[in-house]
Model the fold of this input.
Amino acid sequence: MLTDAQKARVEELLSQMTIEEKIGQMNQESPSIVGGFSVPFPELIEMLNDGRISQEEFGQIMSTAKRDFHEDDIRAGLVGSMMGDDPVKANELQKIAVEESRLGIPLIMGFDVIHGLRTVYPIAIAEAGSFDTDLFERTARVAAKESRAHGIGWNFAPMLDVARDSRWGRVSEGPGEDPYLASCFACAKIRGLQGDRSSAENYVAACLKHYVAYSACESGRDYNTTSMSISQLHNVYLPPFKAAVEEGALTAMASFNDLNGVPCTVNPYTLRKILKGEYGMPGFVVSDANGIKECVTHGIAEDDMDAGVQAVNAGLDMDMGTHIFKDHLKQAVEEGRVSMEVLDDAVRRILSVKMWLGLFDNPYVSEENIEKYKKLPQEHVEVALEAAKKSIVLLKNEGNVLPLDRKQKISLVGTLAANSEEVIGAWAMSWKREDCVTILDGMKNAGANVTYYACGGPEGEINYDEVKKACEEGDVVVAVVGELVSMSGEASSKAETGMPGRQREMLQAILDSGRPLVTVLMNGRPMALGWEGEHLPVMVEAWHLGIQMGNAVAAVLLGDENPSGRLASSFPYVTGQCPIYYNHPSTGRPGSKSKFTSRYLDAPFKALFPFGYGLSYTTYEYSDMKVQETADALEVSVNVKNTGDRSGTEVVQLYMQDITASLVRPVKELKGFTRVPLAAGEEKTVTLVLAKKDMGFYNNEGEYVLEDGKFNLFVGANSEDCLSEQVTVKF
Ligand code: NOJ
Done:
């Protein structure tokens, strides 16, 4: 990670630091709100939440408050990191750290840049469905450049939680249900964020989160407990983190949840043994916001001091959101509860990341760079548009209603179609309204003959007069329905993931009119769409696609883009099927028509739309699957033919099943994929290589094992629709 000269510089600094300065490096601050009101800020939030004050009163009080940027503490060397996205403020604070603190150690500025800063691109669950690793890398590079121009050297991304329960609102932020796809996503994001070090303005340090198994929260309820076998942890939840560290990821964020009884903030097994020990992550681990203090609430620590001691000893290096390290670590060291070696290790890691970022030599954002990114660079907008187009999934197209003809009179309904705030998706904070293209804007930009009718949306009543008008006046109705951005993301778990509000009734009314209906979904989770799957003839999954959403959706609806996105997560019929995922372990009684099998009385056991699924305006045919064994790999080839009359891109997917093993294995596991462009009528032989070393699994001792025996290989268009071959492999 560092040259010898840089390492020596870190050691030299470390040797000069007082214990207070060392602990200061382990302290992250965000601007706090001071003055203007007589209760502490957290209580004010509580008052807002429990209704003691209204939103208006809160706004009024806040307008009288000031922000404390902790200048005095920075000057005293008591702050190692700040949060924020304002480059001018970043420079001001950095100047205090560099010029006025005793040792002049720069701050590292961290921020949540999950799917873009100014150039917001699709939420991760959508982008993952493009199955395009080159794209994953390019969107991250855009985010890195814009971050640096805003003074941010450290992105709290990528979010790598493999998520199989769409009740959990944060499924939107991660790359879906599959560990292999998530690992490919992880590596590409690390290359994009950290890879281009040709100039200090091009790269940031990544922060892998949420480490680990946060997405396995019981009942899909955010912050809830998680419990699983060691083999499941290693086979499902850890792989993207491991892959990212192998790709060079420098830092990680400990998750809020407890894992098998030990909160991840104070978990020596996951932090010190696995992440820093076995994987060898060279940088540091930050807590999630307030995470250390929450260990007292978890009941694993008796007080703040105890929580801080457990955290730092477990391998947590930086405190986000509490002052527990700042207030208690010195005493803990003096009492021998934390050794100086442990403290030095944490500080060394933090200084090393700052050194790697070049902050010691180049701590400020240049005026030129600030100026350059005040307006969105066209090349960034183009990447966002490409990502948005490639993330759209065509779910149903009965009667080939799509693509639409520009000359058709299109009635566009649903408030989501015309609200620029709703294209953005969860966890994006630095976008500007003027950059956002709604579906209505996009359709107009594309020259469609479109009229918008404000018929209703996820919230509130439906205006049936408008619905009637829309149906009467249009040749076709495009209904944009789904979830508000606020319905997914952090603290947005749902016990019912079906269509919110009265949107189903609106869709029924349009169906009743007899007008052709195209349904476009905007949502941050795989929703339970049993009714929609049965009744709606045409469905397009458009997620929350970012600033270019409208242009991308218009391109697909009008046929300028042949959809090629696939689902990175299975869609259930009903919420009660959650968690649902294609790569579940084999049961002794696989679900079938017969009663005493793994099934439901009142719902299908399969997904409505499975992982990897997505249609196109053309059709593809698979034939002639062959498996060729080499010394260290299996080469799986298949012929794929575009049998329609339009060019398109097919996502060819390779799956494997270990038929008999010492632990029950998944019915299928994704092992490879590739995007294959095919002109109308064109046929290609596609070869995917499965390295033998990747055919093993982790046992309950956390050891990776390769077991000889029979394997099924599958190649096809999605996790259900595949050709297969059986092979016997000796390792
Ligand atoms: C809480 C969230 O869980 C995490 O994803 C985020 O990075 C931090 N807060 C910082 O905003």
Summary: The mean pLDDT is 97. The chain has four domains: 1-31+69-107+280-374, 32-68, 378-577, 620-729.
